[in-house]
Structure formats: structure tokens, C-alpha cells
């Protein structure tokens, strides 16, 4: 660690371990409140999984995450992130190419969407706006859940019961049909839930995949309907179900958070790995860096995942056995990978040739429910999907600065790619190229000639996400978003409100409530809870 990346002091009010967007949001709120804050990031660049890097000359990739939806609008306002470069470009379309030459595009324009859906089902075209309205109502109800710490039903604190009663009143305020719908979402699979509304697979398949993002589940698995709702909670400028590109890549979200934190006085150091949390009398009193330096702090906030926090930074020998067992059972199970391509020309889809606005949003390779289930079947038995579900974006169409003139960046989120392949996770490097080939081969079926246009290819397996970005088992959400790992159970029963059994140590990232995605809420809520505790 060079002097240029060395903390300026050995004592702070708070040390944040991890410079992902949540850690940076947490640091910004603490510094804004007048606390002396240090952020320590292991890599040479800030952002964690929300990072942009120039991996090929002239091409900037959103390496891991690729679109922004869940980022909380009030955080943008409270930290004045727009002044620091936070700039989202709304996605104008969700495009589904089909192997039979047909295609379906869903637009921001409801009339245009209705005409497209009617080509597959006149009934679905009529129902689609009703579905969107119902989900928006439920998302608004859930908004109060994700914008506040999770209530603890086992607590005797009257404030906790007040929160629970408030949630009950909010639920009671929904009409009976919406309440029933909410209960169904908690228990049903994404496909079964959508079956109650729609008949066309061309509509149901690309909609159902929102229920499997970040989970090792199939679209027919119970509980995936809630994850579908989780992805409906995104907002841009107050518009629900709005997704967008971050201008300059998703790393610009993190850099805006970092700039805000610095403007309030926070210190941020990169290339500075933390070896362990410093403990004294069962309390966290700082951190020890890999070079042996000790930094003291009144509070330590971990912005890495729970498994890495407690078994890596703290050490199981310092934990209550029952708590350690809960963390051991907290499901990580990475199930996705990423393929990033630098292209010398724009992909040309056979079903809808040429350039056009249909390519300026997300492109789903999800031609049917059975296709998605077959992809899941391969993963269940320890292999990556030979024909995977892909969510593809070409950000250079709306943000030309990420690629040279006439060239393009293509980013493909890939599911399924299980961390525990049958050969063992350590053998992923030997299978990486075959995994990348499966993605390119799948895309080639829809846009012939793509393979010949590739100038550079980056393939990230779950093993790579773990090794390079510190995501245990490659899980992009720091733990699955399954029902038993949400609200007051995230990451463990009794420890959902950012505190940990180690006094002075707090959780402030996606492994805490309300979970994963580029939302900033775990970092914000951890900071506000810590400030309100009187311990800092």
C-alpha cells in the first residue's frame, strides 16, 4: 500500500469497510452529520459491483451491474447527488426477440405497447394496463417497507410494535382485492402469478424473469412472485417501474456517492484491503489493514456481505454459536454471471433488423417458460445453462461516450451460472471460455454475425465475482432475496436492524434490509440507525 493510498489518521468516528455504493452512501450520511469518517476499499477503483471500468481502449463497461432502478429518490435529494454527477437515462423499451422471427417490444408509450401485445393476444393487450396499475399500487405499499428499517416482531420495544401496526394499517388501507393480491405475491411462483393475468407466453416469459434475478430458483418456484414485485419498486423522478442507464456506466452512481461523501468531509482510500475487525472486550474498536496498520474507530460499518463480515473480518471464534449457525445457513448461492462485449458494429436482430429504438432498452432472451425452466434444470444439477436467460443492453446507443464512434458496448446478464458447478467452484476458470461461448452462441441465433463483430470479451463467472469483487459465492445481492431471508430475517432473526452481536459493528450493505440492487437504502438506513442510537 503506497503512501498515496494511506489513511491520514489512525483514529476516526466511523470506519466503513467496502467502497461499494452502499458503503459510500452510508459514509456520506455519517459525514453530513458531522462525524469523521473513513472508507476503505480493497480494489483500486470505487464502486464494488456498481463499477465502471475501461477494459478495452475506448470502451467503458458497467462490469457487474448494468441498469439502475431501485435507487431511492430521497437519497438523491438528501445527498444532492445530481450536483455530483448522478444522471440517469430512462430505458425506453423492453424488447423480446423470438426464434420464429416474431418479436415483442414494450414501450413507455402505453398505446404502442398495447398494439404490440395485441399481435400475440388481444385479451392480454387489454389486461396489461390493469396489471401495471395493480403492481404500482402494491409497489407504493411496499415502498414504506423498503424505506424504513425492518420492524422486529419479537421485540418488546413499543416503537417496533408501532411500526408493525402502521404496516397493518397500510395493508388495511388497500382494497380487499389488493390485499389478496399481496398475499398471493408472498407465496406464488412468478409464472403462476402471471398466469392469473395473461395467456401469451411471449408476454409472460420476459415478465417472469424479474422473479429469478439474484435467486437460485426457477420461474415456477414458489416465492419468486415477490422478487418480481421487488423489481417493480424502481423509481426515476417519481415514475414507478422506471429503469435507466447511468450516464458513463453504473460506476458513475458510486462516484457520485463518493463525491457527495467527500463534500461532507469523508475520507476515502482505495487499494487498502482490511484484514480483520479489531476487537477489544467483545467490542469492535477499529480495523487492522493487511499491511498490519491499525485504525481505531467508535463504530465499524461493514459494507461487505454477511458471510465475509462475520467469518472473514470478525472470525467465528468471536461469535455466539447460534448466531454463527444462522449466518452459515444464510443462502448465498450465486446463480448468475456476466458477459461484456466490445463490438465493431451494432448487432442486427433478424426479427427486427437494423438500428432502432427497440435496441435502446433491455433485450430479453427468454422465448418461453419451458426454455427458462430447462435453463434452470441444468443449473440444479451443477452446470451452467447452455441456452441461458440473457438480459442484454447496448448502452452505447443512448450514451455514446462509453464506446468509440461507430462502435458499441454490449452487456449481457446471464442466468443460470451456479457457483457450485459439479466440478467444484475452483474449476470455474477452466470452464469460463465455454460459458462465454454459450452466451455468444445463444445471441448469435438471434443476431447472426455478432461473433465476427467482437473486438473484446470479458466473461465473469460467479467464481470471478467472488475472487475479484468479494461477492461470496458470486451472489450479486449479498444473499438471496428469498422470503425467509427478507425483512426481520435478513441476515438473521433478531439482527435485521443493522446492529450485529459484536458491539460497535454494523452492517450497511445488501446483506441487510431491504436487500440487493443499486438502491442505496441499506447504507442510508444503517447510517441513520447508527446516528439515532446515540452510540456515535
What do you see in this structure?
With 536 residues, the chain is an alpha/beta fold. It has three domains: 3-88 and 247-331 and 475-532, 3-Layer(bba) Sandwich (FAD/NAD(P)-binding domain); 106-241, no CATH class; 333-472, Polyamine Oxidase, Chain A, domain 2 (Alpha-Beta Complex). The protein is 34% helix and 19% strand. It contains 16 helices and 20 strands. Strands 1, 2, 11, 12, 13, 14 and 20 form a seven-stranded mixed sheet that branches.
Describe the structure concisely.
With 536 residues, the chain is an alpha/beta fold.
Helix content: 25-40%
The CATH architecture category of the largest domain equals: 3-Layer(bba) Sandwich
For this structure, the CATH topology of the largest domain is FAD/NAD(P)-binding domain
Share of residues in strands: 15-25%
How many DSSP H or I helices?
16
Q: Quick check: average pLDDT?
A: 91
Poorly predicted ranges: 235-241
- Going by CATH, the homologous superfamily of the largest domain would be FAD/NAD(P)-binding domain
Number of domains: 3
Oligomer: single chain
Inertia-based shape: globular
Amino acid at each position: 500500500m503506497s503512501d498515496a493510498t494511506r489513511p491520514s489518521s489512525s483514529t476516526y468516528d466511523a470506519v466503513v469497510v467496502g467502497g461499494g455504493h452502499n458503503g459510500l452512501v452510508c459514509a456520506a450520511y455519517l459525514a453530513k452529520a458531522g462525524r469523521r469518517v473513513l472508507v476503505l476499499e480493497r480494489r483500486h477503483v470505487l464502486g464494488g459491483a456498481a463499477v465502471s471500468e475501461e477494459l478495452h481502449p475506448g470502451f467503458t463497461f458497467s462490469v457487474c451491474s448494468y441498469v439502475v432502478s431501485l435507487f431511492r429518490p430521497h437519497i438523491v435529494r438528501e445527498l444532492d447527488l445530481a450536483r455530483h454527477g448522478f444522471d440517469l437515462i430512462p430505458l425506453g423499451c423492453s424488447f423480446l426477440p423470438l426464434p420464429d422471427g416474431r418479436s415483442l417490444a414494450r414501450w413507455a408509450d402505453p398505446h404502442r405497447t398495447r398494439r404490440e401485445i395485441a399481435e400475440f393476444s388481444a385479451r392480454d393487450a387489454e389486461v396489461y394496463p390493469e396489471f401495471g396499475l395493480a403492481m404500482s399500487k402494491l409497489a407504493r405499499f411496499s415502498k414504506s417497507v423498503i424505506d424504513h428499517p425492518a420492524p422486529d416482531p419479537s421485540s418488546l420495544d413499543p416503537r417496533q410494535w408501532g411500526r408493525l401496526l402502521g404496516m397493518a394499517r397500510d395493508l388495511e388501507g388497500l382494497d380487499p382485492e389488493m390485499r389478496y393480491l399481496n398475499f398471493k405475491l408472498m407465496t406464488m411462483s412468478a409464472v403462476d402469478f402471471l398466469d392469473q393475468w395473461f395467456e401469451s407466453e411471449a408476454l409472460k416469459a420476459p415478465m417472469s424473469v424479474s422473479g429469478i434475478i439474484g435467486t437460485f430458483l426457477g420461474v415456477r418456484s414458489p416465492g419468486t412472485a415477490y422478487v418480481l414485485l421487488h423489481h417493480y419498486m424502481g423509481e426515476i423522478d417519481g415514475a414507478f417501474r422506471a429503469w435507466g442507464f447511468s450516464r458513463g456506466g453504473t460506476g458513475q452512481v458510486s462516484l457520485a456517492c463518493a463525491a457527495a461523501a467527500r463534500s461532507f468531509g469523508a475520507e476515502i482510500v482505495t487499494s487498502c484491503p482490511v484484514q480483520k475487525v479489531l476487537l477489544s472486550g467483545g467490542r469492535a474498536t477499529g480495523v487492522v489493514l493487511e499491511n498490519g496498520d491499525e485504525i481505531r474507530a467508535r463504530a465499524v460499518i461493514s459494507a461487505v456481505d454477511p458471510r465475509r463480515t462475520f467469518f472473514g473480518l470478525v472470525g467465528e471464534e468471536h461469535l455466539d454459536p447460534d448466531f454463527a449457525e444462522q449466518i452459515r445457513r444464510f443462502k448465498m448461492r450465486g446463480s448468475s454471471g456476466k458477459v461484456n462485449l466490445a463490438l465493431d458494429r451494432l448487432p442486427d436482430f433478424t426479427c427486427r433488423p437494423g438500428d432502432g429504438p427497440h435496441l435502446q432498452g433491455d433485450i430479453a432472451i427468454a422465448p418461453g417458460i419451458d426454455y427458462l425452466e430447462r435453463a434452470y434444470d441444468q443449473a440444479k444439477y451443477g452446470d451452467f445453462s447452455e441456452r441461458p436467460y440473457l438480459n442484454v443492453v447496448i448502452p452505447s446507443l443512448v450514451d455514446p461516450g462509453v464506446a468509440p464512434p461507430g462502435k458499441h458496448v454490449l452487456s449481457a446478464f446471464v442466468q443460470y451460472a451456479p457457483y457450485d458447478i459439479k466440478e467444484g467452484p475452483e474449476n470455474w476458470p477452466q470452464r469460463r471460455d465455454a460459458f462465454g461461448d454459450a452466451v455468444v452462441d445463444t445471441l448469435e441465433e438471434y443476431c447472426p454475425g455478432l461473433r465476427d463483430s467482437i473486438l473484446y470479451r470479458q466473461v465473469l463467472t460467479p467464481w470471478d465475482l467472488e475472487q475479484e469483487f468479494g461477492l461470496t459465492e458470486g451472489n450479486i445481492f449479498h444473499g438471496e432475496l428469498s422470503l425467509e431471508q427478507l425483512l426481520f430475517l435478513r441476515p438473521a432473526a433478531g439482527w435485521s436492524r443493522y446492529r450485529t452481536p459484536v458491539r460497535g459493528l454494523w452492517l450497511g450493505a445488501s446483506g441487510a434490509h431491504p436487500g440487493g440492487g443499486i438502491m442505496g437504502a441499506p447504507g442510508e438506513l444503517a447510517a441513520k440507525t447508527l446516528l439515532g442510537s446515540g452510540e456515535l
